[in-house]
Amino acid sequence: MSDNDARCGHASCRCTVPSGSEYCSDYCREAAATTPEEQTAYCDCGHEPCVQAKEASLMDATV
Ligand SMILES: [Zn+2]
Ligand SMILES: [Zn+2]
Q1: Is the whole model's pTM more than 0.85, yes or no?
Q2: Across the 63 residues of the chain, what is the mean pLDDT of every consecutive 10-residue run?
Q3: CA of 21 to the centre of ligand 2 (A)
């Protein structure tokens, strides 16, 4: 963890963003503007950390 990287502003997103940026993608910018009830448990921005988290959660759900 370094001071140069910050977490994406979308609560469910696992991405880090460069200092000065608030979101990793337009998807997260829009998702963060929705109400908490509308937000999914995983992030759909398409970046690797979030794709893996989504696949893991979907696997858990089918057990
Ligand atoms: Zn994400
Ligand atoms: Zn993000």
Answers
A1: no
A2: 77 92 94 76 91 89 69
A3: 10
